[in-house]
Every structure is written in C-alpha cells, then in structure tokens.
Known about the structure:
Elements: H1 5-32, H2 43-97, H3 104-125, E1 146-148, E2 154-156, E3 164-168, E4 171-174, H4 179-184, E5 192-198, E6 206-208, E7 212-213, H5 216-226, E8 229-233, E9 239-242, E10 265-269, E11 272-278, H6 286-289, E12 294-299, E13 303-308, E14 317-323, H7 326-332, E15 337-342, E16 347-352, E17 363-366, E18 371-374, E19 377-382, E20 390-396, H8 403-414, H9 422-482, H10 486-511
Antiparallel strand pairs: 1-2, 3-4, 5-12, 6-11, 7-11, 8-9, 8-12, 10-11, 13-20, 14-19, 15-16, 15-20, 16-17, 18-19
Helix pairs in contact: 1-10, 2-3, 2-9, 3-8, 8-9
Amino acid sequence: MRISTAQFYESxxxxxxxxxxxxxxxxxxxxxxxxxxxxxxxxVGASRLLQLGxxxxxxxxxxxxxxxxxxxxxxxxxxxxxxxxxxxxxxxxAVGAGNAGYTDADRLANASELGQIEEQLLSLxxxxxxxxxxxxxxxxxxxxxxxxxxxxxxxxxGDQSSLKLPVGDTMSMxxxxxxxxxxxxxxxxxxxxxxxxxxxxxxGRVSLSNGQVNNSGSFNKSFRSGEPYNVEFVSGTQLKIxxxxxxxxxxxxxxxxxxxxxxxxxxxxxxxxLTLNVNLxxxxxxxxxxxxxxxxxxxxxxxxxxARSPGNxxxxxxxxxxxxxxxxxxxxxxxxxxxxxxxxxxxxxLYAAPVTADSKxxxxxxxxGNVATASGVSFTxxxxxxxxxxxxxxxxxxxxxxxxxxVSQLRTALSTPVTGNTIATQKQLADLASGIANLASGxxxxxxxxxxxxxxxxxxxxxxxxNTSLADANVKTRSAISDSDPAxxxxxxxxxxxxxxASQLAFSKIAQLGLFNKV
Length: 519
C-alpha cells in the first residue's frame, strides 16, 4: 500500500491537532477543576446538573419565602400578645366594677378607661406592616380590616383568605392570620335573650336575665330545636317551661324549676344559665304575687348592619331591617354578607358578597311601597332609590362576637347610673357577667391564634432544616458530577502531553524518509 506525501502530512497534522486539543482541554480542566462545561462533555451529567440547578433555585426561593413568613408571623404574634395584655386589663376593670362598694362615679371611671382600651384595640387590630399592608385583612390588605359602624358596633372588612407561600416541595404555609379567624370567631356566650310577656307593665318583682351559654353542644342541639320557650311562674317557688309546641320541659331545668326568693339565683336549662332575681316588697306573699309572671326565652334573632355605597346615584338609605319569612331566610339568604343592588327605582337583586362579573342574584323583587323584601328579609328605605344603588348587608348571627363589640358593650353598661335602683343594678351585674364571659371567650380565641403562629414557626424551623440538608446534598451532588479529580486530571494531562511530544518526534523522523532526502 502506497501513501503519498500529501496524505502523510494531512494525517500527521490531523493527529497532532487532535492530541493538541486534548492537551488544551485537559489543561483548562486542570486549571478550573470543572469537568462538565457543556452537554457534550457528559450528556447525562449535564442533564442532571440542570435539574440540580433548578432545585437549588427553588431552595433559594423557599429560603426567601421562609424569611418573609417568619417576619410576618413575628409581627402578628407581637401584636396579638399586646392585644391579649389589653384584654387582660379590660377584664380587671370589668371584674372590679362588680364590687359592691363601687359608686356610679367609680364605674364611670372604669368605663372611661374601657373607652381608651376600645380605641387601642381598634388601632392594634388595624396594624400595618412595613409596606403599609394591613396584617389582619386577609387578601384585602389595602383597607382597614375593622371599622366602627354608625350604631357603635364594629364590622370586619377583610376576607378569610390566607396568603400562602411555598416553603418546600410539598409544603405551603400561610404568611398571615386573618382578623376573621383571630377576632371574629370567639364564641358569643350571650346569644340568648329573655323578653317579659306578662304582666304588660313591669312590676319589678321578677328579673330574669338574658342567658349565658355554658354548653354550646346542648344549646345548638337541644335549645335551638324547641325555641321560643315560655317561662311561667306558677307559684311562689315553682316555674314552668314549655317549648314552642307546648310541651312541658321543666324537668330539664335545674332543680326541676324550683326556686327561692333569694337574689342572683342561677337557673340552668339546655345549655343556658339564666340569672333569676325575685324582688318582693315587705310582707308580700310570693304565692300571691309571683304566679302569672311570664317570659319568652329564645336565641337572639339575626340582625343586619346595612351600609350605603358611597357611589350611589340617589340619597336613599336603609332605615330598618327584619326577618319576615324565616323559611326563605334560612334557605337562601347569603351567610356572612350580601349586597342589595337596585336595577331601577323599584327593581332590585340580592347577591352574595363579594359581587363579581359572573355573580348571579340569589333573590330578585320589586319595591312594595318603601320596603324591599329579598330572601325573607325586609329592608325599609327612606327616599327613592335609583338604578345602580347598592347597599352592603352584614349579617350578625350572634354565634360569635368581635372583642371590640364586647368591650363596647361593657363600656355602655358601666356608663349607666344604677345607684338606688335594684332592677338596674341587677341588669348591670348580668351585663358585667356577660361581658366577662365574652372577654374570656375572646382571649381563648386569641390564644388559639397565637398558638397557631407558634406552631407555624416551629414547622418553618423544621422545614428550614430539611431545606438546608437538601441544599447541602445538592451542592455535594453537583460537585461530584461537575468537579474533576485533580490526581486523575494531572495524570491524564501528563499522558496527553507525552503523546503529543511523541507524535511530534515521530513526524520529524518519518518526514526524513522521503525520496527527496536521498537525492
């Protein structure tokens, strides 16, 4: 086989370039100690490095999210702890006001401090973060979550959405605590009411307070199924309780409905504690004057707070609300909040709040005089509404009570003079007992929220440890794939340099065998 001089030079040059490229590449690898620079260096390794790089980016984002959540939770816990301390002071004032030695002036002083506490609570519950966002508003963090209504009650303007951020591959965590969960869900122990039905004019001999719920299970299961109840005094020592169907259920009352003529007696019935005071005049026979006194006992009916939209074309206002069809109300009225919207001066629709572009009305109708009735609720209006008039309707079921309302009610009770008035004093004591119980309920709900923040903090610490371990493993795995072994690289480089030198020497020796060298 003959090889031409041109073929020999081309083959030698190609081999030399190939060996030289290997030396250059190994030299660069020896300098950087990075084995995989392109996918061509190691296709499988390059693919794995890409996956590991994506994981590293996610872990960095998880770390950023974790730090953000920790900061938010820290601020929320600090504010909630301050609120808890304020509530403790409110409870001290309420308990102290029940002191028999207190005068109206003393109680008024406590009421004044409760007014300051009320303002302080409102400010704390509307706390903003460093970006001006309201921390208890849920996803509606651009408006104050709590506001005072015209009647002195309070409304929650936020929503129930928790802002969740991913902190792990399969774990997301709420960065906030909503005002709905923290302050709106405290059980209202004062959700039953007593109304005197006989005699028509109060003679002051019998005072029966609104009840305090001592067992929510019994109240919801047994009490609600038989209301309204009729409480009748049939003798000077016995009362009788009948349910809505006329059934005698007195046996379920404490002591079978037997009472005495002492003050501040407790009558327990189906999860409700009632305070009974019998106020006899000197020489009166209880068997002669107490029979015939009757009271109606039931859960407090739902109430509504209606606010006119600032952009309404007309000046019409809703001046009164009432449930006129209980079955329709229970069946279709939106729970929580609704929007009453007029499409003309007489036609209206009722929507569940919030209203969106695809919202459908739950009820529609036309005005009857100045009354709009939707889903069993009648709204009395003053003035003529116009098309596009809207009214926000907040529903108060009395199942729960905002701590702001509790403090406000306590302040009102202590501001009322009662000195020398036995009936007023007994009512005030009942109001104090109600307020103290609801303060305790609010503090319990707040404690649950603080515990939730602490639990999330612990979960974040655990997840942080997991993410740190994953990040360390990620770095080690990437290093194992992409980094070079210095000893192996230097050995390979020495071999390749030797082969390059050998190819250079072989080329020079073989080049001397040409015929031109023999001429």
